[in-house]
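One example given next:
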Amino acid sequence: YRTRGDLDRALALYQESLQIDELLGDKQGKAASLHQMAAVYLTRGDLDRALALYQESLQLLELLGDKQGKAASLHNMANIFMARGEWVEAERALQDSLRLAQGVGSVEHMAFATGKLGLVAAARGDRSTALAHYREALALHERLGMPEAQQVRRMIADLEGGGAPADDPLGQAIARARGAADRGEVASAIAAQEQAVALLRQAGEG
């Protein structure tokens, strides 16, 4: 149902699954149901509800000692922080996710977290740190033969040869919107587009 776009039906089934998990005392199942429900709310654009559910799932995963699950939840929480422009919180969540991924040897999670740290640095105008993260992420993506490597190469090319400069917030917002759209990150793309529109309005008022 979620794949079909019937989010109401998908959410109802996840909630039913959650109730069964609670009756059975299945904390792992409950964490998984909460995680999937959060993804539905994220697709709807309800970032507050999605974040609350990811945090609830994270607490259960911490009790279970599920490091890989925690890494995934933290990564998704970081996406929400990035969509909100809360870069400090996003960086903290990504660093925690990266440490957990390194601890369990999940190279795929390491690649994604490192790439997102590059996005955070780029959004802050820290070009050198962004490039360092992107290059590290690229090496990890290439090591696994992941298709996302091409996207990372484009981000490196943007910064090295013509990406929006640090003193061009409108150009940076547009670049973030395009990059997020290319990666299929709907919430981040919308947030960046809204930021670009706000900057254009400010310029018009000026």
About this structure: DSSP finds ten helices and no strands in the chain.
